[in-house]
Amino acid sequence: MSAVMPTYARVDIAFERGDGAYLYTADGHRFLDFGTGIAVTTLGHAHPRLVAALTAQAGKVWHTSNLYNIEGQTRLAERLAANSFADTVFFCNSGAEALEGTIKVARKAQYHAGHPERVRVVAFEGAFHGRTLATLAAGDNEKAREGFGPVVEGFDHVAFGNANEVRSAITAETAAILVEPVQGESGIRPPGVDFLKQLRQICDEFGLLLAYDEVQTGVGHTGKLFAYQHNGVAPDIMALAKGLGGGFPIGAVLATDAAAAGMVAGTHGSTFGGNPLACACANTVLDVLLEDGFLAHAAEMGRLLMARIREVIAAHGSVLETVRGQGLLIGMKCVVPNADLVTALRDRRVLAVPAGDNVCRFIPPLIIEESHVDEAIAALDDACAALAR
Ligand SMILES: *Cc1c(COP(=O)(O)O)cnc(C)c1O
Q1: In a domain, 265, yes or no
Q2: pLDDT tens-digit profile of 167-195?
Q3: Pocket of ligand 1 contains residue 216 by CB under 6 Å
Q4: How confident is the model over 337-365, as pLDDT tens digits?
């Protein structure tokens, strides 16, 4: 067995450095990175402000633990709260951990409100929430659970986008509804216009918490800071990670005061969560994203990319079927196997990411310009022409 446990089907390429929207191999080949390490490198590679913030913090202090106040963490929490529905934030290191925290906050809120029996979470078919034991149970991938022992109790799955099924799944033991505003791993699947609104109504009616998994959709990728802001339906709890640190690991659980009422000292913790290095990066990502016009530009690039992809689809209907998504989180449903398109794009030095439902994802960094769109579209057009033959 390889020294690195072989849990990934890796492509045999390694990148030595990155610069903006590009990655470079040691032998000097340049790739346009329209995968961003799966929605992580929000500002592209080696962004000068991120490099400056991380190195400045590295020269001061790396880690003190949450035994003490961490100035950058306080500032980051205040800014996330000021720019969302939330009042309070818990920091961790990854998406799965943010979801674990989200589930814990939801259950504790019900317990704190005098409903210890309310522990179950309604989740959705096609959902992905991570690879820990509880998040595997919350997600909808039977195969990923195989061989890992008893499945964590307390998750009821219903069809994504079907409010009637949600209603019928609710029992006296239901605590919360957990949903991705746009399902990422299962193929950039939006749920339909009014679904989140319906979930909000159901939660209000039954006294449940509405929890969003914005690990993939959050931090600008849909053209707004958070995907839920497109239709204004606020949750009670929200998980973030991936793009938040621009490539430095950090996750977060955002919550209202009411939802977090039971989360007092000693109820939850994380050694590394929100450490000074991570918060220096995340604060810099927010500095850039919140600048006037930055997200509007990303949204504009998303519209352009989507329109250009539609032209490619019109010309290559035997390879590509449809395109969906929002902002710079885009899924192209393939006619040919999606892995073939990802490979054909990589052969043309463009990185894309496969997803479920035979989808090929473009998730470019938010800093792209029209020239990057041109370059990706030329490669896509050429790849489709080759695959059509
Ligand atoms: C990636 C992802 C996760 C898991 O994040 P990790 O950092 O890999 O644990 C959870 N939810 C969604 C929607 C994701 O896209």
Answers
A1: yes
A2: 999 999 999 999 999 999 999 999 988 99
A3: yes
A4: 999 999 999 999 999 999 999 999 999 99
pLDDT in the model for residue 193: 82
Look up the domain containing 220 and give its range: 50-289
| Spatial distance between the Cα atoms of 21 and 366, rounded to a whole number of angstroms | 9
Rounded Cα distance between 342 and 344, Å, is: 6
Residue 298 and residue 241 in one domain: no
Which among 41, 93, 215 is the best mutation to test ligand 1's pocket, defined by most ligand atoms within 8 Å of the CB?
215
- Assign 281 to helix, strand or coil: helix
* Ligand 1 pocket residue status of 128, Cβ below 6 Å: yes
Q: How many residues does the chain have?
A: 389
Q: How far apart are alpha carbons 123 and 140 in whole angstroms?
A: 8
Give me the number of domains the chain comprises: 2
CATH number of the domain residue 380 falls in: 3.90.1150.10
In a domain, 217, yes or no: yes
Domain boundary among 263, 289, 315: 289
DSSP codes, 38-99 = HHT-TT-BS-HHHHHHHHHHHTT-S---TTS--HHHHHHHHHHHHTSS-SEEEEESSHHHHH
Rounded Cα distance between 87 and 59, Å, is 31
- Asked whether 140 and 124 are in contact (CB, 8 A), the reply is yes
Q: What is the pLDDT of residue 389?
A: 79
Extract the residue ranges of the chain whose pLDDT is less than 50.
Answer: none
Q: Are 85 and 234 in contact (CB under 8 A)?
A: yes
Residue nearest (by alpha carbon) to ligand 1 atom 10? 129
- At 195-208, the pLDDT tens digits run 999 999 999 999 99
For residue 221, the domain's CATH number is: 3.40.640.10
Tell me, using a 6 A CB cutoff, whether residue 94 lines ligand 1. yes
Same domain, 279 and 133: yes
Contacts of 279 (CB under 8 A, 6+ apart): 70, 72, 73, 75, 76, 91, 250
Residue with tokens 């909808």: 140
